[in-house]
Amino acid sequence: MSPRATPVRFDEAGPLALSLARSVADEEFTVLLVRDVRGRFTLIVDDREQPVDENRRDRWHAALVEQLAPYVTGRPLTLASQMITADALLNSPRATSDTLRPSGGAGSIRLLDNTVVGEDWAKVSTPGPEADGSRTHRTALYGFKGGVGRTTATAMLARRLADEGHIVLVVDLDLESPGAGPLLAGPDSLPRNGIVDHLVEAAVGNADGLELVTRTAYAPRSRRGELWVAPARGQGTDGVPYAYVDKLNRVYADLPGSSFADRLADAVEACEKAVALGDSGLRPDVVLLDSRAGIHDVAAVTISRLCDLALLFGADSAQTWAGYGDLFAAWQTSGRAPDIREKLRMVASMVPDTVHHSMDDYLDVFTARSYECFAALYDEVAPGEALSLSTDDTARIAFAPSEKDDAAPHHPIPILFEPGLVGLGAGDARSWQDRAFVKAAYGVFLDTAARLITAGPGDEEGTR
């Protein structure tokens, strides 16, 4: 095999490495393809039951070097028989299975991707019930780009759910641009501490006694309802400067025995427990997580690990679809698409409704582009084929909603654009949900999102 005429680039290295791993697996070997933090690959071959002769070893080694350089490590090919930690690596819970079976032979492939940030996008799980069997429903509100009205929508949804009798907690996880706390409670009514304080203090075993939440002054229409907020930034202690930037610079590190994801989950859990110390003595039954925008570790943990439902905000722009396209492609490549897709729902924010740009026309275009983007997460079913998929040992119904399926993840929940919403602050907030232009802008969103959050298993809903 002759060397490449031009150096391989990062985007090409992944598919090439996977193709080479599949060719080895086709020779009936179990292999693990490992990528390091610089993007370089090592192929580990399990030769403990089937020895690898010298010719095979040299052929595989030469192919890896010739096709992947400079994206190979100093040991591009490693045999399990020569490793002390072979079982730990080959059976690593962080490794994922190849989404395509080898094209012949009995071998198998797993992938282990080591990254500096963003690793939690591929670690998908759903919160379980509390120790007493109760269930707190967590909803993440996320936008790939900022400026799409996510925090305002969070505040509106929180009030709607409190009006319905729920104990609602809003957790501001937009640490770099905190806003939910002041918007819901006002700057003078925030607790002394915020999420950043828990992340910093817990790192040194000092998180007990923090004041993390406050009950807002909002009076829900239902007497049972409560609205609480856990801000990213607290109010601080009188006479002591609040060193927010210094704290923020220290929150993202993984600590021995405790990853950033675990620490963020612990902080959210601490806020939920703090609500139970309030007047009713009950934990929140609905938690809204206002996530930071972009491909960032906070968003990765929030969507992949902390929530039951993720509302994905976006406007119809090239940046929106390119960003979500990259994220969905990463889930598809990592094999996590089936685990994540059914807890996603698209929100079309700032939808125009004018003589020149009608809401229906805009949403038709938005839906088509959203469907094209989400297709990376859906199962491929050829026309005329049954909506079922099977492998050697399992069978399941394919997840392949149509473009017009109004309960599908790609189908947008609209929020209309209204100039009066721009710059709406805490001073305007007490009665804003009763204003006609606010009801018109948020009506469909609030009805649909509230139904998604409170619906029982098997309940169906539509948006238009």
From TrEMBL:
Residues of the signal peptide: none
InterPro entries documented for this protein: CobQ/CobB/MinD/ParA_Nub-bd_dom, P-loop_NTPase, ParA/MinD_ATPase
CobQ/CobB/MinD/ParA nucleotide binding domain sequence ranges: 141-178
Pfam families, A to Z: CbiA (PF01656)
UniProt keyword annotations, A-Z: ATP-binding, Nucleotide-binding
Protein name: ParA family protein
Taxonomic source organism: Streptomyces brevispora
Organism lineage string: Bacteria, Bacillati, Actinomycetota, Actinomycetes, Kitasatosporales
